[in-house]
Amino acid sequence: MAYTVQCMLMHAAVLGSPHPQFDHLTAMRNPSPPALVPVRIWDLPTRLFHWLLVLAVVGLIITGNLGGNWMVWHARLGLTVLALLVFRVAWGLVGGRWSRFASFAYSPRKLIHYLRGRAAANGVGHSPLGALSVWAMLAVLTVQVGTGLVTDDEIAFTGPLARLVETSTALAATAWHKGPGKLALLALIGLHVVAIVVYHLRGKRLVPPMLHGDKLLPPGTPGSRDDARQRLLALVLALGSGALAVWVGSLG
Ligand code: HEM
What we know:
- The protein is 65% helix and 3% strand.
- With 252 residues, it is mainly alpha-helical.
- It has two domains: 1-32, no CATH class; 37-250, Transmembrane di-heme cytochromes, Chain C (Fumarate Reductase Cytochrome B subunit, Up-down Bundle), CATH 1.20.950.20.
- A two-stranded antiparallel ribbon has the order 1-2.
- Helix 4 (71-94) crosses helix 6 and helix 4 (71-94) packs antiparallel against helix 10 (228-250).
- The longest helix is centred in the first third of the chain and has 24 residues, at 71-94.
- The structure holds protoporphyrin IX containing FE.
- It is found in: Cell membrane.
């Protein structure tokens, strides 16, 4: 054995290349993982949904703080978020594999295992912790949109559905919308961005896949369908969601 190793080292020293047997033995001891290949994880509709949602929510925060005439735009952006949420619910059922709710509906047990470090995320779609933040954000956004639709500030602004509820309900909804609801949303957005920065510092880059759609993964990892037919389906669903939001807005 000692002779074999000495022979290999001499081979490397003299020829400047490893002994063929050395390569073979190294490969046997440290089998290198197969080369990673780009796999489509976030289909185009999911990426458009995400970045339009970011724009709309930032616009809502700004216009909500400016108040006055900006409330017209606040209401329009709120209806835009309504359309986006309706679209996302539909896309969670029929969208690409990794955008489907079923792919990130983790049980509390799985989440606890993940948090305790006992189970690793598969590194493909949303991790259990990421999924929790996504569910929380979608839920808080839904409540913000719902309360915004029936809001009544008793001065100049009423939501399009305010007349369908009791005044006391509209006032309670307004108080939630401007108070705890807004704070919860801001806190979740802050956590979301901080988590992404922390992952980035640990070498896990989550933002590029949300821009171009692909992650580098072992060959054979199933991807999300993102072809022309699927995008056409998304367009039809987006138009339907938009029409629904316009109709809700017209009820005011
Ligand atoms: C108003 C602010 C934001 C909101 C409301 C928001 C909301 C969301 C939602 C709902 C998802 C889930 C996407 C889906 O499956 O449909 C998500 C994922 C994601 N967001 Fe945001 N986002 C915000 C800002 C940002 C910013 C500023 C960045 C980049 C720095 C970012 C990067 C990401 C990434 C990389 C994911 C995928 C996370 C993963 O791989 O699990 N988001 N975001």
